[in-house]
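User: Hey, quick favor. My workstation is busy. Could you predict this chain's structure for me?
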Amino acid sequence: LSRSAVRSAESNLQLQLDSSLAAIASRIDARWSYRRGEFLMMADNAVTMRSLTNAASVSSVDSTFMRDAFAIIGRGIPWIRVHDATGRLRWSFGEQTESTTGGRPFPANLRDEERLPVTLTLRDANGRPIGSAEGAVRLSAVLPLDSMPVLISNALLSVAEANAGRALSYPGLGSVPPGAVRFERDGDTWLT
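Assistant: No problem, here it is.
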């Protein structure tokens, strides 16, 4: 093939890849909005706010409400912790063990599945910090591979955590060298 034909084919493929990525990003954005809403339901509801601003212990009704709320979101958000401004743990949901990296706790059932860390500063009606919430969102809850559009045969999707730049691994995801525009793998040339 002539060089111009190769360039034309690569340009066409790049347009298809960009279109496919835009469709995937749109689905991820919609799912992330949903998961963020679930996280906020736990972290920024009236019961949580009251427990952060009132030193009194919470009622059994409050505890039941929070347990029921977590039962609804637990598949996508396997753990969440809420601390008051002094660092005192006020709410804790989900199973927790010690991580093998950095000693940070994370749920035992996520050892083999990627998770996205979530941390929020919680504020009162005047905007003053009154606590924090931290937890995790399962990657599969925002990127379920079985519902992603496959617009290009044999295309691979690689995902990296934006803040850390860390490549996430997940069954069915590919991996791309960071910053690569073109790379070789198994004798084939890949475009990104």
